[in-house]
């Protein structure tokens, strides 16, 4: 058993000064069979510690319903076996470019609840969550023979709010649940963030991508004593759909890392290995300086231009970082572990069955609900997926504009069964007016909940109403199709022959694999949707890029026949080539 403590200027392990050379790796973004490989890659880069968030919404999809919280414990056991320390960031808010910043939508969507404050209803939910998650953390602390040396209180709270009483409540809850290792906060190196997000008696750390000396000078104005640590050294960045691929020069990033270490500070590379937002869990941001602008959905890949790429391979940045970090070790760094085997040979996917979205909804969807105004995704208990709204335009009446007030995020509109257009937040009105009587069908898709900024926690769906001219259309019927509904399989879906032309719907097929291994799935001719292989949800694809293929971890595939489902939400190209698996 060892004791890890915060000294006047250093971290102390059994009274001896130590420096944390950490890297972020999210266990929930890496296939479990690859945890040990990725941890070995971090050790080979020269790191002695790993940091992970814990996504509350992944582990508690419904009130009172928990899903594999033990995965965190298994990951921490793998960390200990790899000879690394661990930093755990249990939230409740994590950001992480993750759906809703890690908070369950049934919490953020609860009427009257004020999240990330001292609101008692919110804190009541957090208490239950902390009770569960600390069962995985507490017995694995370093003073009990485990790897955990630090636990975070909230996350970058100073960029969101100033309710430091809320942070005190969270710190108290962690202590009551048995967390004995040092607690910490992390914020941007700005005065208003540090005053709003730090706590007396709790280690304050800062997050940045460059100008380490300036950042630490700001931190020292607020905390004259204590170890210096950059809890998030942004050595890369994430990508948005329809945006450009973001990369950082390896040499420049290595020099920024060197500057941090020359300041005598500890560091956590964010990300050391980004992984993948499988299952449609990628979040979204709001554009603009104040994060109030257009929605910017995050791509499925969380490669992050990290030193260990999405497939677990070392990049040029890995080797440059390894050179810098080697100078802080007395012994030679470990050799790299063997890379996982790639797919044996390319393989085409044969799609031989199709069901229209309406049939999929009837089979796998939730209960239909009728309300005066459109219920939100939250009210329909849809976390990730889509909702079909139906409403009647009374008649007879002349053509008027049809507008979706408060649309989030995207709607495919049908009038009397004919497709009439695609609406977005920026363009919520149909180009052609609608006469009555008419039946309007609206398939609304969430492109990812906001994970950062003042609009964090906003609802999804049609949040204002359906307007015909200036008149609300009442009596809206709504039914949701949540991605989790596919976890039980699609055997009940009534599949038929493929449509003559490309169409939205659920496509079913197979792929014959010879030599299972890491692969990427290309989907030429498809527009936007989700893919499952052998029931494993690879995430969202979208033809707008910049991501052009989906990562398929080798353990997902099996020798011989593999089942494939493709949920296409727009339509396919007229001459659709077959999807294909390629070796990474």
TrEMBL record:
Protein's UniProt keywords contain Hydrolase: yes
UniProt cross-references to InterPro entries, sorted A to Z: B-gal_1-like, BetaGal1-like_ABD1, BetaGal_gal-bd, Galactose-bd-like_sf, GH, Gly_Hdrlase_35_cat, Glyco_hydro_35_CS, Glycoside_Hdrlase_35
GO BP: carbohydrate metabolic process
SUPFAM superfamilies attached to this UniProt entry: (Trans)glycosidases, Galactose-binding domain-like
Entry-linked PROSITE patterns: GLYCOSYL_HYDROL_F35
Record's keyword annotation contains Transport: no
Active-site feature positions: 156 (proton donor), 232 (nucleophile)
Domain Beta-galactosidase galactose-binding: residue ranges: 506-562
Domain Beta-galactosidase 1-like first all-beta intervals: 374-475
Domain Glycoside hydrolase 35 catalytic: 11-326
Swiss-Prot/TrEMBL keywords: Glycosidase, Hydrolase
Highest taxon above the source species: Bacteria
Pfam families membership: BetaGal_ABD_1 (PF21317), BetaGal_gal-bd (PF21467), Glyco_hydro_35 (PF01301)
Gene Ontology molecular function, alphabetical: beta-galactosidase activity
Family in the record: Belongs to the glycosyl hydrolase 35 family.
Name of the protein described by the UniProt record: Beta-galactosidase
Organism: Streptomyces fodineus
């Amino acid at each position: 058993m060892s004791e890890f403590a915060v000294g006047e200027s250093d971290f102390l392990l059994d009274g001896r000064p130590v420096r944390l050379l950490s890297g972020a790796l999210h266990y929930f973004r890496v296939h479990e069979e690859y945890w040990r490989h990725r941890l070995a890659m971090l050790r080979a880069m020269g790191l002695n510690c790993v940091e992970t968030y814990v996504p509350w919404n992944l582990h508690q999809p419904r009130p009172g319903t928990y899903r594999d919280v033990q995965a965190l414990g298994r990951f921490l056991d793998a960390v200990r076996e790899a000879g690394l320390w661990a930093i755990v960031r249990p939230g409740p808010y994590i950001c992480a470019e993750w759906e809703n910043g890690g908070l369950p939508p049934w919490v953020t969507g609860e009427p009257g609840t004020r999240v990330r404050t001292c609101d008692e209803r919110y804190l009541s939910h957090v208490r239950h969550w902390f009770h569960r998650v600390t069962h995985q953390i507490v017995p694995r602390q370093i003073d009990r023979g485990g790897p955990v040396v630090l636990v975070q209180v909230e996350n970058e709270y100073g960029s969101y709010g100033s309710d430091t009483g809320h942070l005190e409540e969270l710190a108290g809850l962690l202590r009551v649940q048995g967390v004995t290792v040092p607690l910490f906060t992390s914020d941007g190196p700005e005065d208003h963030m540090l005053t709003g997000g730090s706590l007396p008696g709790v280690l304050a750390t800062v997050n940045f991508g460059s100008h380490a000396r300036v950042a630490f000078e700001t931190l020292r104005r607020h905390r004259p004593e204590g170890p210096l640590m950059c809890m998030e050294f942004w050595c890369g960045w994430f990508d948005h759909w329809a945006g450009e691929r973001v990369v950082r020069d390896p040499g420049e990033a290595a020099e920024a890392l060197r500057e941090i270490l020359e300041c005598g500070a500890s560091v956590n590379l964010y990300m050391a290995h980004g992984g993948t937002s499988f299952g449609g869990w990628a979040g979204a941001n709001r554009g603009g300086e104040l994060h109030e602008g257009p929605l910017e959905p995050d791509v499925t890949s969380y490669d992050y231009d990290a030193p260990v790429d999405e497939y677990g391979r070392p990049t040029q940045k890995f080797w440059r970082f390894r050179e810098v970090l080697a100078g802080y070790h007395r012994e030679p760094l470990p050799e790299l572990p063997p890379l996982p085997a790639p797919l044996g040979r390319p393989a085409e996917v044969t799609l031989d069955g199709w069901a229209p979205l309406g049939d999929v909804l009837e089979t796998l969807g939730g209960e239909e609900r009728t309300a005066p105004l459109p219920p939100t995704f939250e009210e329909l208990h849809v976390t990730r997926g889509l909702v079909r709204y139906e409403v009647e335009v009374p008649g007879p009446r002349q053509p008027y504009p049809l507008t979706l007030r408060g649309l989030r995020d995207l709607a495919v509109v049908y009038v009397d069964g004919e497709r009439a257009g695609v609406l977005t937040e920026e363009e919520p009105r149909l180009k052609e007016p609608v006469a009555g009587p008419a039946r309007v069908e609206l398939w609304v898709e969430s492109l990812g909940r906001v994970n950062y900024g003042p609009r964090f926690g906003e609802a999804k769906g049609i949040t204002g109403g359906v307007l015909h001219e200036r008149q609300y259309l009442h009596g809206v019927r709504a039914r949701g199709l949540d991605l989790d509904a596919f976890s039980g399989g699609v055997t009940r879906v009534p599949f038929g022959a493929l449509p003559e032309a490309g169409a939205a719907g659920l496509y079913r097929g197979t792929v014959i694999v010879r030599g299972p291994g890491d692969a990427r799935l290309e989907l030429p001719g498809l527009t936007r949707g989700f893919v499952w292989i052998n029931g494993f949800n690879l995430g969202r694809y979208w033809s707008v890029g910049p991501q052009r293929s989906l990562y398929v971890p080798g353990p997902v595939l099996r020798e011989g026949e593999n089942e494939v489902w493709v949920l296409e939400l727009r339509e396919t190209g007229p001459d659709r080539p077959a999807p294909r698996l390629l070796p990474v």
